[in-house]
């Protein structure tokens, strides 16, 4: 498979310029993650000309996480400001599988972080998600595109869609805030002296330097979901999840496993409707293919899966001293549908001493008479019966 497939697609009046970065963009990496860059068209931005962060191949393969408070920018690609986008493809279709955890099908990873570790306050430069099925089977992203509207786009999606012209001339009304942010002709020769980007623009609440949960600290249910760059990417093997507590950003707890496969850890979705990151998940922003709609009619897309995904910066704002709001993308994963055995508490695909340690550490009555980690038979107590179930399943593997 070629690492790059060039195409031209009309996006509701916005012409994709096919401005792929032509150097430093490595070979496809397979399996559970996006494997090919179809198109990369950044909008002007402070990092667009930086070779450390403008390589679109950084969005291929698994992400590199760093936790909830410090972004890892070693393997992300910037999309620049409003309308900047990247389009990725997969070796095999990502399918709408109701047997996936919570029915979620794909995960977009980024460098989003929480402010001072508070999951209700985010440094988030949010991007919209569009998906397309290769219905004509030609391997080119020229079939219809469908939008994941998420929590904040209007029912009439076209009401939120707009285009933006850019050029590098201070004599016109359309240069970026800093003309040095305009994509360099040496790196992006196809862009030329002026070009156009477009996006489904998100509401003003996303434009500030911090995205605050309207419920404030202590909120349990999430109000922002269905977009990229909302949630942090955890360290590989940090199976404790993250809730703003003392064990965030740590792989030193008994249930953690720094040797876990990235193809297992980063394909386990977080619940996008609850605050924080679930135990066993690598973070990121998961979505259900069934959420996608026709951008013109608003009707359900009724897709059985997708072959291509487009991620687009959906905010037009400058936040001094941080610069423009620009999404940075680290990876897109296909959620694994393999079942995880009840005895595999840390969801690493194997039942071993780490799971035994969890049972022993949770020994006794469950808090408030409810279920708890280690209570396999759900009798509200962790005891010898649960221990026997773990030992009986010892050595079992569920990872394919």
Walk me through what this model shows.
With 400 residues, the chain is mainly beta. It folds into 2 domains: 1-337, no CATH class; 340-400, Type 1 dockerin domain, CATH 1.10.1330.10. It has helices at 262-265, 353-361, 384-392; strands at residues 10-11, 14-15, 36-41, 77-78, 85-95, 106-110, 113-115, 118-123, 127-132, 146-148, 161-167, 194-200, 211-212, 285-287, 305-313, 318-319, 323-324, 328-334, 364-365, 381-382. A 5-stranded antiparallel beta sheet has the order 3-5-15-9-10, with no helix packed on it. A 4-stranded antiparallel beta sheet has the order 4-18-6-14, with no helix packed on it. Strands 7-8-13 form a 3-stranded antiparallel beta sheet, with no helix packed on it.
Broad shape:
globular
Distance between the termini: 24 Å
Our estimate of the beta-strand percent is: 15-25%
**Mean of residue pLDDT values:** 87
Give the topology string: H per helix, E per strand.
Answer: EEEEEEEEEEEEEHEEEEEHEEH
**What is the percent of helical residues?**
under 10%
Tell me the radius of gyration. Answer: 22 Å
In what order do the strands lie side by side in the largest sheet?
Answer: 3-5-15-9-10
Number of domains: 2
By DSSP, the count of extended strands is 20
Largest beta sheet, briefly?
A: 5 strands, antiparallel
Number of helices: 3
List the helices and strands and how they pair.
Layout: E1 10-11, E2 14-15, E3 36-41, E4 77-78, E5 85-95, E6 106-110, E7 113-115, E8 118-123, E9 127-132, E10 146-148, E11 161-167, E12 194-200, E13 211-212, H1 262-265, E14 285-287, E15 305-313, E16 318-319, E17 323-324, E18 328-334, H2 353-361, E19 364-365, E20 381-382, H3 384-392
Antiparallel strand pairs: 1-2, 3-5, 4-18, 5-15, 6-14, 6-18, 7-8, 8-13, 9-10, 9-15, 11-12, 16-17, 19-20
């Amino acid at each position: 498979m070629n690492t790059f497939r060039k195409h031209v697609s009309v996006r509701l009046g916005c012409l994709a310029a096919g401005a792929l970065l032509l150097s430093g963009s490595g070979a496809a990496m397979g399996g559970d993650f996006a494997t090919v860059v179809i198109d990369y068209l950044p909008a002007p931005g402070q990092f667009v000309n930086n070779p450390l962060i403008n390589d679109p191949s950084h969005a291929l393969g698994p992400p590199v996480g760093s936790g909830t408070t410090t972004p890892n920018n070693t393997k992300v690609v910037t999309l620049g400001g409003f309308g900047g986008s990247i389009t990725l493809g997969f070796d095999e279709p990502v399918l709408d599988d109701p047997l996936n955890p919570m029915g979620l099908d794909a995960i977009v990873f980024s460098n989003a972080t929480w402010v001072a570790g508070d999951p209700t306050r985010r440094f988030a430069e949010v991007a919209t998600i569009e998906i397309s099925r290769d219905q004509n089977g030609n391997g080119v992203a020229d079939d219809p595109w469908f939008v994941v509207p998420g929590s904040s786009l209007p029912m009439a999606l076209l009401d939120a869609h707009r285009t933006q012209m850019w050029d590098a001339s201070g004599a016109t009304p359309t240069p970026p805030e800093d003309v040095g942010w305009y994509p360099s002709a040496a790196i992006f020769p196809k862009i030329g002296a002026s070009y156009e980007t477009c996006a489904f623009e998100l509401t003003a609440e996303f434009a500030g330097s911090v995205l605050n949960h309207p419920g404030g600290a202590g909120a349990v249910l999430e109000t922002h979901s269905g977009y990229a760059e909302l949630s942090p990417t955890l360290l590989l093997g940090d199976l404790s999840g993250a809730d703003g507590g003392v064990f965030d950003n740590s792989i030193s707890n008994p249930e953690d496993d720094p040797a876990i496969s990235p193809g297992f850890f980063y394909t386990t979705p977080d619940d996008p409707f609850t605050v924080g990151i679930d135990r066993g998940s690598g973070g990121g922003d998961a979505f259900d293919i069934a959420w996608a709609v026709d951008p013109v009619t608003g009707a359900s897309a009724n897709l059985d899966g997708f072959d291509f995904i487009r991620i687009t910066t959906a905010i037009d704002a400058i936040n001094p001293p941080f610069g423009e709001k620009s999404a940075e993308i680290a990876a897109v994963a296909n959620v694994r549908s393999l079942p995880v055995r009840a005895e595999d508490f840390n969801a690493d695909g194997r039942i071993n001493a780490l799971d035994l340690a969890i049972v022993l550490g949770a020994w006794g009555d469950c808090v408030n008479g409810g279920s708890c980690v280690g209570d396999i038979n759900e009798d509200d107590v962790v005891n010898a019966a649960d221990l026997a179930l773990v030992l009986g399943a010892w050595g079992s593997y569920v990872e394919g």
